[in-house]
Each structure stands twice: as C-alpha cells, then as structure tokens.
From TrEMBL:
<protein>
    <recommendedName>
        <fullName>Initiator Rep protein WH1 domain-containing protein</fullName>
    </recommendedName>
</protein>
<comment type="similarity">
    <text>Belongs to the initiator RepB protein family.</text>
</comment>
<feature type="domain" description="Initiator Rep protein WH1">
    <location>
        <begin position="37"/>
        <end position="190"/>
    </location>
</feature>
<dbReference type="InterPro" id="IPR036388">
    <property type="entry name" value="WH-like_DNA-bd_sf"/>
</dbReference>
<dbReference type="Pfam" id="PF21205">
    <property type="entry name" value="Rep3_C"/>
</dbReference>
<dbReference type="InterPro" id="IPR036390">
    <property type="entry name" value="WH_DNA-bd_sf"/>
</dbReference>
<dbReference type="InterPro" id="IPR000525">
    <property type="entry name" value="Initiator_Rep_WH1"/>
</dbReference>
<dbReference type="GO" id="GO:0003887">
    <property type="term" value="F:DNA-directed DNA polymerase activity"/>
</dbReference>
<dbReference type="Pfam" id="PF01051">
    <property type="entry name" value="Rep3_N"/>
</dbReference>
<dbReference type="GO" id="GO:0006270">
    <property type="term" value="P:DNA replication initiation"/>
</dbReference>
Length: 384
C-alpha cells in the first residue's frame, strides 16, 4: 500500500467508522485507465451548476460506486442505511492534478455539494404534463485528519447505483483531465445521446443549454461571449482529450435573426470501428473481385492524401457489407454486373457521398458509410 491512501466507497454507520484502528483509510478502490463513470440519465440531463472540482469529486465517487454493498453483499443500497464516501486529501490532490487543497477551499466545494439541490425532470404518462424532483446529492460533509467524507442522499444512491438501463457510462480518464466544468457537462450530454446512432446530432435551445451546463443569468449574457468563452472552448477540449474515440462539432441555428439553438454533431469512432469489424468478421461468401490499389486510385480519382488511407480495409468492408445484402447483390448479378464492378462502384459511390460531407474525420465517416451504405449504392447501381 502506498503512503497516500486512495479513495474508497463503503457502508458505515457513523463518521468514526470511516477509519481503522490506526486512523487510516482502508484501500478499497484504485482508479485506473479502465475506471468507468456511470450515472443515471436523469442526473446527466439535470440542471447542474457545480464548479469544476466539485464535479470531478462526483466523478471520482461515481467511478468507485461498485464498491458499495449492503450488509448482505448486494450491490443495492437500502434507504435505511447511511453510506459515506471518503478520500484522503493527498489522494484527491493527485486525482485533481493540484498541488494543494486547503481546508477552506474544500469547505467551499462541500457547501455547494451539500447545499445545492439538483433539479431533475421526471417522466410522465400524460402529454404536456410536467413533473420534477429537487434534492441534494449529499446530506453531510466532514473534513477531519486530512480526509474528506461525504454522506450520500437517497437521490445520489439512486443516480449512481447499478443500472440495467437508463444510464450513461464513460471512462473517467476522458473527463478527469478537463479544465472546464462546461466541457464535462457537454461531454456528458452528448454521451447520453450517442447510443442512438454512431453518427448523429443533438439539439438544444440556447436557453436550455445554459441551464443544463450551469450558466447563471448574469454570466456570458450575449451569445457571442457564450459561444467564444464556453461552447467553442468546450468542444475543442473534448476533441483534444477524447478525440481518438469521439469527434464533436456544432452548428448555430437561427430563429429569425437571432441564434436560438445549438446543434451538436458527433461521430462515435469506437462504435463505428467495432460495427465495421463485426461485419468483416461475419462475411460468409466468396467473390471474384480482386483488390487493386492502382485501379482504385484511378477509378476514384484519389489524390496523394486520400491514397494514403487504408483502402485494403475499406475494400474488405465493402465486400462484407455487400455480403450482408445478399438479395441486393443477387439482383445486381441478374443484371450481369460482375463482382469487380459491384465492389468498386460501391466504394466509389460511398466515397463521393462522404467526400462532399466530411471536412474532418473522413476515415470514421467513410467507414460508417461503407457499413451502412449511406450513399444508397445498391439502388443506384440497379438503375444503371
């Protein structure tokens, strides 16, 4: 065990139970690159105006929630019990990447976390009906002997517990290094939506977005300032930190002359690659087409940059997708089209489709297009 006690999450009946006989915190959770944050979607989509490090403390807690058990070893928390999360200040400094956390500063964070109610919209069965719930996430905060301890409320236990549906999870490492609380909130909001499709968009009114990410009425009053100080830098930071897995862009939508909505665009690179690999591995039939990079360069009119892409992979993916559309393939064969013609035209039509639309992240967009035939290639080849 290292000299600096790591954070942990466990059930205790009193604050005194937070420490062993030597007054040390028991090591139960170790944060690593594989640590996952899991939150209920109602919490993610709630109105939250916590400062950066308060949000990060919640993330650390959420990523170690799996340690929590009841007296029977179950992963569900009965309402009758009190549960505390504790971390040594030295470990917290390491996780937050700061040199020193004073007791005064920790008290300021704790005041926000204990005293601020979270505003959650509740689902309703009647159209037009509005329901809500307001409650804090923590009932008590204690700083003693270099350790910060937080008592969870019922709402906190519900929204950070083990879910079978209605939750969002992502790697802690993707957010713990972010420098803006707004980046974290926008990242969470997009992650809560991207399960619907590997490439998609989510739109918020400017007013709604301000509430969701915690912008007060007297901050960033004009859209120009809001855009330059919050939205733009947040999107840039998300792409900087998690750009290998997720691309985020945005466009401004107008109502009349005023900008009224923000449309966030996303590309889930991991999901796209996973779906493509699964399709390649599930191919069943053989084809008489042959991969020829020189032929591809000429047929698609590739330039020096596009020629450097992994066309062998694209070719294999095109074959696999054609294989998964066997009826369409057989219809094309009935037109006496050979396999080379079908495969190379499938690549060309999807390449031209993506080239017109993808200024950035061509590879991920093209892979998604080949996997799903965004260009509608089968139908256009049948009409030739």
């Amino acid at each position: 065990m290292s000299e600096k006690e790591l954070g942990y999450f466990e059930k205790f009946e009193t604050i005194d139970d937070l420490y062993d006989q030597d007054g040390k915190v028991t090591q139960l959770s170790i944060w690593s690159d594989d640590s996952l944050v899991r939150k209920g979607n109602p919490l993610i989509k709630s109105r939250m105006s916590w400062p950066l490090n308060a949000q990060k403390i919640l993330l650390l807690l959420a990523s170690s929630y799996s340690e929590l058990t009841d007296e029977f070893g179950n992963k569900f928390v009965p309402d009758k019990n009190k549960y505390f999360w504790s971390i040594s200040v030295s470990a917290l400094e390491d996780q937050l990447g700061v040199k020193r956390l004073s007791s005064t500063y920790l008290k300021e964070l704790a005041q926000v976390m204990v005293q601020t109610s979270i505003d959650i919209n509740l689902p309703t069965t009647k159209e037009g009906e509005y329901a809500w719930r307001m409650a804090p996430l923590f009932a008590d905060a204690t700083y003693q002997s270099g350790k910060l301890s937080l008592e969870l409320t019922r709402l906190c236990k519900e929204q950070l517990g083990r879910f079978t549906s209605g939750y969002t999870q992502y790697y802690l490492k993707n957010v713990i290094r972010m420098r803006s609380q707004y980046s974290i909130r926008i990242y969470e909001l997009i992650n809560a939506e991207k399960f619907k499709a590997p490439i998609g968009a989510v739109t918020y009114s400017v007013e709604e977005l301000r509430l969701l990410i915690g912008i007060s009425e007297d901050s960033y009053k004009t859209f120009g300032i809001f855009n330059s100080k919050v939205i733009g830098p947040s999107v840039d930071e998300i792409n900087e930190i998690d750009g290998e897995n997720l691309y985020v862009g945005y466009t401004k939508l107008r109502t009349g002359r005023s900008i009224s909505h923000i449309k966030f665009l996303y590309i889930d690179k991991n999901r796209i690659k996973e779906e493509a690999n699964n399709k390649i591995n599930s191919r069943k039939h053989q084809y008489s087409s042959t991969y020829d990079i020189d032929k591809l360069k000429d047929f698609l009119n590739l330039d020096k940059k596009t020629s450097s892409y992994d066309w062998r992979y694209y070719y294999d993916l095109a074959l696999a997708t054609i294989d998964s559309h066997r009826k369409s393939y057989e219809s094309l064969k009935d037109l006496e089209l050979d396999d080379d013609y079908i495969v190379y035209n499938y690549l060309k039509k999807n390449y031209e489709y993506v080239k017109k639309r993808a200024n950035k992240n061509f590879d991920s967009y093209f892979v998604a297009s080949l996997t799903n035939d965004y260009a509608g290639s089968f139908g256009t080849m049948e009409r030739i």
